[in-house]
Design a protein that fits this description.
The chain has 4 helices and 7 strands. By secondary structure, the protein is of the alpha+beta class. The chain is globular and about 45 Å long. The two termini are 19 Å apart.
């Protein structure tokens, strides 16, 4: 089922997600709906907050992204990141590694808004999967960026919070308009988005 994606201005986007204690049929259905929703709008990541559920749950799929390389290491061995997609991460914890680099990001909760954001070039992720197993892997490149973006969502942090102040100031009128629309309409309809997180 395709779910409405909350837009900037909805207070749920600022709530830190609760840990998921029991990975039951409801959680599995929510994850499946999130994946369907994300794919329907050509997104590469979606956090539970973005569909109105403040939980520690995010889904990712970077397999359609051709122009921004990603790396993935499982148990110390390089694997093709696309072969592991989509990812469902429950209660994820991340460790940042490597250099800090700038890169363009968008967000499904911010239609048509992008910005240059600083992120670590790689992350080590420890999370549970839908079977409740603990998984650990290292991600680099675009996948690492997407994971950091979604991990921020799970903690109530939005990508505009990481923009340089001049860039954020340049977007202020568009951000105010989005906030007003979100307040006026409550739960906006799905928005088309390009490669957004």
């Amino acid at each position: 089922m395709i779910l409405p994606i909350l837009q900037y201005g909805d207070p749920i986007l600022r709530i830190k997600g609760k840990p998921i204690e029991d990975i039951d049929a409801g959680v599995r259905e929510l994850a499946a709906n999130m994946l369907e929703t994300m794919h329907a709008v050509n997104g590469v990541g979606l956090a539970a907050q973005q569909i109105g559920e403040p939980l520690q749950l995010t889904v990712l799929d970077i397999s359609a992204v051709e122009d921004r390389p990603s790396t993935l290491k499982l148990e110390g061995s390089e694997v093709d990141p696309k072969s592991s997609m989509p990812l469902v991460l429950i209660n994820p914890k991340i460790e940042l590694h490597g250099e800090i680099e700038m890169g363009v990001e968008g967000c499904l909760s911010f239609p048509e808004i992008t910005g240059e954001i600083e992120r670590a070039e790689s992350v080590i992720v420890r999370a549970q999967n839908l079977e409740g197993e603990v998984v650990q892997f290292e991600a680099g490149g675009f996948l690492a960026r997407a994971i950091q973006h979604e991990h921020d969502h799970l903690n109530g942090i939005l990508f505009i919070d990481r923009m340089r102040s001049a860039a954020k100031a340049a977007l202020s009128s568009r951000l105010k308009r989005l906030q007003k629309e979100s307040r006026r309409t409550g739960r906006p309809d799905l928005q088309e988005a390009q490669v957004s997180l």
